[in-house]
């Protein structure tokens, strides 16, 4: 299960932020080239990157994939109400087996889980919803279709405001 918090988050410094921004802009840039651009030793760049990964600040290096480019042009958010005695984990495990389910979050409020899903069309979305409803423990769903994504997922603004002031 992926946690939304860490035990003791540490601030990052300007060099860490610059490395993250460079990696976000050019994911394939190597340590040697990064060290040249950042003006620090290659070993420093690699050690900092390793430390950021160990702390969970950087969580992956894989390519970002656009579902629409694969033919999944419909994005929807589905709120699930589940049977409480079974808990969230068994339901989440079964939802993870459905390829069109991109994310599952445990939430507060009216529902218990919030899923971000994709589908090839509105008719295909019905198929995805049907597969979700078949998951044991799911009692009810409520679906909202996204029309546009004016602000896509992003974390760089958080990186920029998380830089600790330079001491000295």
Strand and helix map with partners:
Layout: H1 14-25, H2 31-38, H3 42-54, E1 74-82, H4 88-96, E2 101-106, E3 113-119, H5 122-133, E4 138-146, H6 156-161
Antiparallel strand pairs: 1-3, 1-4, 2-3
Query: Helix count?
Result: 6
SSE-based structural type: alpha+beta
CA radius of gyration is 20 Å
**What is the rounded distance between the termini?**
40 Å
How is the main sheet built? 4 strands, antiparallel
- The helix fraction, in percent, is 25-40%
Q: State the shape.
A: elongated
List keywords for this structure.
about 170 residues; alpha+beta; 6 helices; elongated
Give structural notes.
It is a single chain. This protein is α+β, with helices and mostly antiparallel strands. The chain contains 6 helices and 4 strands, in the order H-H-H-E-H-E-E-H-E-H. The protein has helices at residues 14-25, 31-38, 42-54, 88-96, 122-133, 156-161, and strands spanning 74-82, 101-106, 113-119, 138-146. A 4-stranded antiparallel β-sheet has the order 2-3-1-4. Strand 2 and strand 3 (113-119) form a beta hairpin. Helix 2 packs across helix 3. It starts with 13 loop residues before the first helix and ends in a 7-residue tail after the last helix.
